[in-house]
Amino acid sequence: MPQIGLPPYDDQNIFAKILRGQIPCRKVYEDEWVLAFQDINPQAPVHVLVIPREKYCSFADFSASASEAEIAGFFRAVGKIAKTLGLEDSGYRLLANMGADAHQEVPHFHLHMFGGRRLGPMLARQG
Ligand code: 5GP
Description:
By secondary structure, the protein is of the alpha+beta class. Helix content is 24%, strand content 20%. It has helices at 14-19, 59-65, 68-84; strands spanning 27-30, 34-38, 46-52, 92-95, 111-115.
């Protein structure tokens, strides 16, 4: 359940529809905790989204409400995906947008995984 002060989870968000199989995705990995798929608008040669199977609207919600097993399962899967995609030697970047200042677009917690080229500075100057 979401924490007090956080918005309720929107069952109609695009990732909820992907999880329900109502919208297709290019799947990269799945297990009992996560689904990982290619971003529809990739910002790097590798741009994968990793999402928990359960309903968390943001990192704030996930970090406060998910069980220890879900949190561990999620982050272990992220490491496994990076390894499977061959990113460990060349490197990669993980990013989670939370809320308005970070331009979070989809209200289902997700991590972006970027790789496959030099990724440049950590943050754009503005945007
Ligand atoms: P956010 O700004 O919420 O961190 O990122 C949302 C990401 O979801 C964006 O990078 C966007 O390209 C991606 N996205 C939005 N709609 C879809 C979709 O229908 N399918 C896939 N695979 N990615 C999507």
